[in-house]
From TrEMBL, chain A:
Protein name: Iron-sulfur cluster-binding protein
Source organism (scientific name): Planosporangium mesophilum
Highest taxon listed in the record's lineage: Bacteria
InterPro entries tied to this protein: 4Fe4S_Fe-S-bd, 4Fe4S_Fe_S_CS, FTHF_cligase-like_sf, Helical_ferredxn, LUD_dom, LutB/LldF, NagB/RpiA_transferase-like
Pfam families linked to this entry: Fer4_8 (PF13183), LUD_dom (PF02589)
UniProtKB/TrEMBL annotation, chain B:
Domain LUD: 67-164
Signal peptide: none
Origin superkingdom: Bacteria
Origin species: Planosporangium mesophilum
Coiled-coil parts of chain: none
Protein name: LUD domain-containing protein
Gene3D superfamilies (alphabetical): NagB/RpiA/CoA transferase-like
């Protein structure tokens, strides 16, 4: 990227102000990107089939260690279920979220009116591209060169960072985990813990590449390295972009829930703040925070409350010594206004705690990146196929064992397992062709009778030796891709159990 | 619940979040303690808060919070249940004071203790006119993003000190 400050300016033109560059990202070009393409910050437009990705994910170094860490967190987080006082909050939280969804547009209209009265500029974005246009427009109009960002999954839906960079605007993720994955050119693997898949040693190696020097390797040292670099950017950035955890319709208050304090920096230090929320983040009343904040915090990290809740009503007023001069709120739809009308409405009750991901044995085993989507885990497997801009990912509901742990782990009682089953049925109805349907019918008919069942077993046993074991690898064309993550059942032994059982049955 | 019960619960909750509580006999002793906690460091002070009135002459004040070693604030309310401090913003009560310097010192008369987190939300909702915003803070900044190791003082202050004192009668 050309640096404007280094270009000699002719005498006649006005002096170029010194360009504000990120300190945190200095040396980024030195980092050798080693991640597979399906873990990239920007998801490839044509990703490989799921069986290929999940197979490759299992073979990645580090996947087993991540599984161990996540399993430990799951035991800590979910063993013993919900304690009574949190169970009561869970009932109330589930009801508040459903109350919101029964009149989503009404609550959004109230929020908009209140926020505008508070001096907030409210933008509605139907698509991720619209949102990108709005945000880059704000940046351009205000000559923004450096943006500091705190966690926002909604901005991941629009690949905002890549778009801003294309426009010559530097963007720095400031949540420690987000900073780690940004430097590694990856996307978050978990909603709350973006770098849960990285070991301390991996983070250390990454930061040493960035710094081009040896660094002390304790977690405190690595965090201090990031802190020092990011502080410079907090101080000098022109614009802050944040997510929103809850937006209260009755007061227009935007609430952010964090532990590090980066959201407080991002929303208070730069002269412009842009908050981005998907439309379901609205809640009816400010008072609902008394239920939803402790519920979110317990579900996400088992804390009573996180260290910071940042509550924003509007930009700075006359007489106030600090705070942004402009506060913009971008409300993203991306298919949600259709979801709320349909039978999967409840998925929008989600408060993004990430506990269903931790609770999911499939997620823990393959990791968040293997879903090949912005949102991984059970919530991702349900939400992704429903979002408007997701052409791929309709097969994600199959990446589940349907064990039901995600429902038990959900603080707002979203029936994720039922939705996964229904979405599988939708997928089958939408994709299966006539020959496939005919084959299923034939199979069903054959196994309707004991005789048909025995016949297929015998046929399979006899056919087994005729099929070379490598047959799947020799399939032509697209069939080979499909087969790469799969194995043939051992049909040589078909019916062996029945024979064994018949032999032992007392006569 | 009496003030003393609230105080005991607040101190326990704050300690659980790695904050430090100091219990003083009166306002004068509380202010002495604040001065001692700031030692010789540079300070930004929220002069717009009644509970900090009288402190400015005794501290090494700097204008820019980015140059300060310590940020000294009052609070709207402090929550016994969670150890949370609620700070609303306005003239003389800036966003940066409890955030940018590496140490935060808060002055809290016992009259500002409330029992529950819900009470603090109510107190915020009751402000008229509503402030431009508020920060709720419970202990020092922390992160678990590197292999779930707990690290303190990532972006916000690494130390939070709360100086408490009785204001008026104690029941």
């Amino acid at each position: 990227m050309p640096d404007a400050a280094e270009v000699p300016t002719p005498e006649s033109s006005p002096p170029t102000p010194p360009r504000r560059r990120s300190t945190a990202l200095l040396g980024r070009e030195r980092v050798v990107v080693t991640r597979p393409d399906w873990a990239a910050a920007t998801i490839p437009a044509h990703r490989k089939p799921l069986p290929i990705i999940t197979r490759a994910a299992l073979d990645q170094p580090g996947t087993a260690a991540t599984h161990t860490r996540l399993s430990g967190k799951n035991r800590e987080q979910n063993d013993g279920g919900w304690p009574p006082e949190i169970a009561a909050l869970r009932e109330r939280g589930a009801e508040i979220r459903r109350e919101t969804l029964r009149d989503l547009e009404g609550h959004l209209a109230a929020l908009t009116a209140k926020a505008e009265a508070n001096g907030v500029v409210v933008h509605r974005a139907a698509t991720p591209d619209d949102a990108v246009g709005i945000i880059t427009g704000i940046a351009r109009a205000n000559d923004v060169r450096l943006v500091v960002k705190s966690k926002s999954m909604a901005t991941e839906e629009m690949h905002l960072n890549a778009h801003l960079e294309e426009n010559g605007i530097e963007v720095v993720e400031t949540d420690l985990g987000e900073y780690i994955v940004q430097v590694a050119d990856e996307r978050p693997s978990h909603i709350v813990g973006p770098a849960l898949h990285k070991s301390k040693a991996e983070v250390g190696a990454l930061f040493e590449e960035l710094a081009a020097e040896r660094l002390p390797q304790e977690a405190e040292d690595l965090a201090a390295f990031a802190r020092t670099r990011l502080r410079a950017d907090f101080h000098h950035a022109d614009m802050g972009i944040s997510g929103v955890n809850f937006a209260a319709a009755d007061t227009g208050t935007l609430t952010l829930v964090t532990n590090e304090g980066n959201a407080d920096m991002v929303t208070s230090q730069p002269r412009i703040h842009v908050a981005v929320m998907p439309m379901e983040k609205v809640i009816p009343r400010l008072r609902d925070l008394a239920v939803l904040v402790p519920l979110l915090c317990y579900a996400a990290t088992k804390q009573k409350v996180t260290v910071y809740q940042t509550m924003l009503n509007g930009p700075r007023r006359d007489g106030e010594p600090d705070g942004p001069e402009q506060l913009h709120l971008v409300i993203l739809d991306n298919g949600r206004s259709s979801i709320v009308e349909g039978r999967y409405r409840e998925v929008l009750a989600c408060i993004r705690c990430g506990n269903c991901q931790i609770a999911c044995p499939v997620y823990r085993t393959v990791g968040g990146h293997a879903y090949g989507s912005v949102y991984g885990g059970p919530i991702g497997a349900v939400l992704t196929p429903l979002l408007a801009n997701t052409k791929q990912g309709r097969d994600l509901p199959f990446l589940s064992s349907l064990c039901g742990a995600c429902f038990d782990a959900c603080p707002v009682k979203i029936p994720l397992p039922d939705m996964l089953v229904d979405l599988r049925a939708d997928y089958e109805a939408a994709t299966r062709g006539r020959p496939r349907r005919w084959l299923w019918r034939l199979w069903a008919k054959a196994w309707d009778s004991p005789r048909g069942y025995r016949l297929t077993m015998t046929a399979a046993r006899l056919a087994g030796p005729l099929l070379p074991r490598a047959v799947l690898r020799r399939l032509p064309g697209p069939g080979r891709g499909w087969a790469a993550g799969r194995a043939l059942p051992a049909t040589r032994d078909a019916g062996a159990f029945r024979a064994w059982f018949t032999d032992r049955r007392p006569r | 619940m009496t003030r003393i019960d609230l105080l005991a619960r607040f101190c326990a909750a704050l300690a659980a979040s790695d904050g430090v509580a100091y219990i003083c006999a009166d306002r004068a002793e509380a202010h002495d303690s604040v001065v001692a906690l700031c030692a010789d460091g540079t300070v930004t002070l929220d002069e717009g808060h009644p509970d900090t009135a009288g402190l400015s002459d005794r501290l090494r004040l700097v204008d820019d919070p980015w140059d300060a070693d310590v940020g000294v604030t009052g609070v709207d309310v402090a929550v016994a249940e969670t150890g949370t401090l609620a700070l609303s913003w306005g003239p003389g009560r800036r966003r940066s004071t409890p955030l940018v310097p590496p140490v935060h010192v808060a002055v809290v008369p016992l009259s500002r203790l409330v029992a529950t987190y819900a009470d603090a939300i109510d107190a915020l909702a009751a402000l008229d006119p509503p402030p431009t915003g508020a920060q709720f803070v419970t202990g020092p900044s922390r992160s678990g993003d590197i292999e779930m190791n707990l690290v303190k003082g990532v972006h916000g202050p690494g130390q939070v000190h709360v100086v408490l004192y009785p204001a008026g009668e104690i029941r």
